[in-house]
User: What shape does this take?
Amino acid sequence: MKLDVTKLPLGEALIGFVFAAVAVTFVLAFTLPSDAGIEDLEPEDGEAVAEETPAD
Assistant: This one.
């Protein structure tokens, strides 16, 4: 039996999309190396550095 995506009701398509997005997120979260995320890195010499504004 072939799955005809064009005949799916909108609700089922949206639920399927959300389920697929969550599944892909978890798969990528557990397969990527732990140091592949966005972390605080020390700027190299000559790079622009954003300074914090003083609290009022």
The two ends are 67 Å apart (CA to CA). The first helix runs from residue 10 to 31.
